[in-house]
Specification:
Length: 715
């Protein structure tokens, strides 16, 4: 029985041993598999892993580490930090020696790999405790962060470049939050506004606006329904020096929904230029008063209020009386000073709300609102008294600034701004005709005003007649008084105006208008051109001409362009200059003495004869007879027509005749209406006579056709 138990016990023991041996074998296999798996993971890891002994030599390393350092024979020979591949091996040594008992040392190292490239490693060192009789070991783990570092460096460079680009942009760059507080700015903002970044960041952008204006978010909210993603406006900032800075802003949203980006362009100079151009468009550059164009716009508005509201305003037209004398004697600089002085005086005299402008030259205009005739007369007298008493001192010379004023009450009888201008101008000239330094109110039944208006109407007719070739050339013969036969024709060229209706217009209507409004040179140009052209077309008649007498206006002699045209035409004409006689009236010569002497001398040098027309009508006739380079004296017809019955006229004509002959000049008597007058002229020894008794004016072609023995004549 005991033996059986013993056998069973031994069987159990054997079975247990067999089971333990099997478990040991299984555990050994699992451990081997685990070790193999660990070694596979250890070797195939992309990290550089090594186990260092206390002296720094490599105990073991994974394949990645070995690829980094293929010279394995160095592993157990020299400390890792002594290897030459390290850019800074001393740093690695120090880190190994300072590993805490518990914890990890982490740092970056640079190493040269086997390809000679520099690799940046993120290194972690950890102490590993071993058995008590052995020194601790160090686990070296590193991963290649070269690509990451390069990317970081690129990002840093990009950020630096972006920051530099952001800061150095020549436009304002600014971000603001929903409360309009400034979150970021570039350097341009600090330069324009004059504040530092510290003084700007965190402050509301609206604090730097000049006026009350919508904040950027308010603007975006107001226009949120539009399809635009960028909102634009022009807004005025104020810098720390209290200077205005105009910015053209573009506002847009950013990726950060709570912020807006403001991009601004400095348009201060552009706005300043616009303001200057607007000012120049409205103002006269010399006096800084309104100019004519703007004044006419205001006048149009005032007339509209007259038409729609029944208001009554007044237009003043002011003209300096002696401005030309100032320019001619003291120069244009003195004239400019006089104009500015006058403008200042007028500004000080005007009631509140009145508008004043310089229309050009020495002409000023004023509109006074809600002003009737009585009020206008009071203001006009005040202006007259002030300017008539004012004196401007210029280089020790005292200048008088007397003026004449025309007044037009703006009521419903005025149909247009042009009419208001013209009627006020007419009233001003009426004031001048009455003796200057006074005012005249335009009234529709005023005879003087009506005469002026008729003259002004002829100004447009003259221009139209020149354009439509409606001026015609007539001629009147001038005959020797002694009745001696003569084989050559002496005649005076006369001008006639055919109206648009085909009827002749009396010379007394359009000639004064041409003289008064300085367009007589247009008529004189037409007469000279047509007369000389006729002989170009009819050269056979040139030999029949003894003398052609052509009238010149005093205003024409003061017109340089006309004088140049006249001289050139005479030089290029087939009519000999010796056959041309240029007539100038005595009053015209006296009023433009310097111009007359200069022009007449030049014409005489060409070979032309010079005649003084209407002699005796002036106040100083005999004195000017000596100064002017004339060949013939035409005795004014007002004396000639009465010599057969008025002894006084006879004595005047005789005096003129005697003086002219003593000075070696020939005489021509005008207005010879009958044989008796002609006989008395013959007794006095007058050389030539002209008048209806000797021949009436007729078309020049008709007169010359007879003289040319009915030869072919071009009309």
């Amino acid at each position: 029985m005991l033996s059986i138990v013993l056998v069973l016990f031994l069987c159990l023991v054997i079975a247990g041993l067999i089971h333990l041996i099997q478990r040991y074998r299984d555990n050994a296999k699992a451990l081997a598999e685990s070790q193999s798996l660990f070694k596979g993971v250890f070797d195939q890891s992309n990290q550089y892993i090594a186990l260092l002994c206390a002296s720094g030599t490599v105990v073991s390393a994974n394949e990645a580490f070995q690829r980094l350092y293929p010279m394995m024979n160095r592993f157990r020979v020299s400390p890792i930090w002594s290897w030459k591949e390290w850019v800074n091996g001393d740093e690695l040594r120090d880190e190994v020696n300072n590993i805490p008992e518990r914890g990890t040392r982490r740092f970056e190292l640079r190493v040269i790999n086997q390809l000679g490239a520099q690799v940046i490693l993120d290194v972690a060192l950890k102490r590993i405790e071993t058995q008590e009789d052995e020194l601790p070991q160090v686990l070296f783990e590193a991963r290649d962060i070269t690509q990451r570092k390069q990317t970081e460096q690129k990002l840093q460079r990009s950020e630096a470049e972006y920051r530099m680009l952001y800061d150095q942009q020549p436009v304002m760059l600014m971000t603001v939050d929903r409360q309009s507080r400034i979150q970021s700015i570039n350097e341009c903002v600090t330069e324009w506004l004059g504040y530092s970044k510290r003084e700007l960041l965190g402050h509301k952008v609206t604090d730097f606006y000049r006026d009350e204006a919508s904040s950027p978010y308010e603007l975006v909210s107001l226009r949120s329904q539009s399809d635009d993603k960028i909102w634009r406006r022009e807004i005025c900032y104020v810098n720390m020096y209290n200077e205005e800075i105009w910015i053209r802003e573009s506002i847009r949203t950013t990726q950060i929904k709570s912020q807006l980006m403001l991009v601004g362009e400095d348009i201060t100079e552009h706005r300043r230029m616009e303001s200057m151009l607007r000012h120049q468009a409205l103002r006269d550059p010399l006096t800084d008063l309104y100019n004519r164009n703007h004044f006419e716009r205001i006048l149009t508005e005032k007339l509209r209020s007259v038409s729609e509201e029944g208001a009554t305003h007044t237009l003043f037209y002011i003209d300096l009386d002696q401005f030309r004398v100032i320019n001619d004697t003291l120069g244009h600089e003195a004239g400019d000073s006089a104009l500015k002085f006058t403008a200042g005086k007028l500004l000080n005299l005007l009631p509140e709300g009145a508008v004043i402008a310089r229309l050009g030259g020495d002409e000023f205009a004023i509109i006074n609102s809600e002003c009737d005739e009585e009020c206008a007369l009071e203001i006009g007298e005040k202006i007259l008294n002030e300017l008539n008493q004012a004196e401007l001192h210029w280089n020790r010379v005292r200048m008088s600034l007397a003026c004449s004023i025309g007044i037009r009450v703006l009521d419903r009888s005025v149909s247009s701004p042009q009419q208001a201008h013209a009627q006020a101008d007419t009233a001003c000239y009426a004031a001048k005709d009455k003796g200057r330094a006074r005012l005249h109110v335009y009234r529709q039944d005023d005879e003087e005003v009506l005469r002026r208006e008729r003259e002004m109407a002829f100004v447009n007719q003259i221009h139209a007649a020149v354009a439509e070739d409606r001026f015609e050339i007539y001629a009147q013969p001038i005959m020797p008084v002694a009745g001696v036969d003569h084989d050559r024709l002496y005649f005076e060229v006369l001008v006639r105006l055919r109206g648009a209706d085909g009827q002749m217009v009396p010379n007394g209507q359009f000639i004064p208008a041409a003289e008064r409004y300085n367009i007589a040179h247009l008529i004189d140009t037409t007469v000279v051109r047509k007369t000389l052209q006729w002989f170009e077309d009819n050269p056979a008649c040139v030999e029949q001409i003894g003398m052609i007498s052509i009238n010149l206006s005093g205003n024409s002699m003061a017109n340089d362009a006309f004088v140049e045209f006249l001289v050139t035409s005479i030089k290029n004409s087939n009519v000999p200059s010796e056959c041309l006689c240029l007539e100038v009236t005595e009053t015209a010569a006296i009023s433009n003495m310097s111009d007359a002497i200069k022009v007449l001398t030049a014409l005489k040098n060409l070979g032309c004869s010079i005649a003084l027309d209407d002699f005796g009508s002036g106040l100083s006739s005999f004195g000017y007879l000596r100064e002017l380079p004339i060949d013939l004296v035409k005795i004014d017809g007002q004396f000639v027509c009465g010599i057969h019955k008025d002894d006084t006229d006879y004595m005047i004509v005789r005096a003129i005749q005697d003086l002219a002959h003593q000075m070696g000049k020939k005489t021509v008597a005008e207005f010879v209406e009958n044989e008796e007058i002609l006989h008395r002229l013959e007794q006095l020894g007058v050389d030539y006579a002209q008048g209806y008794h000797l021949g009436r004016p007729q078309p020049m072609s008709s007169l010359l056709a007879v003289a040319c023995d009915e030869a072919e004549v071009t009309a």
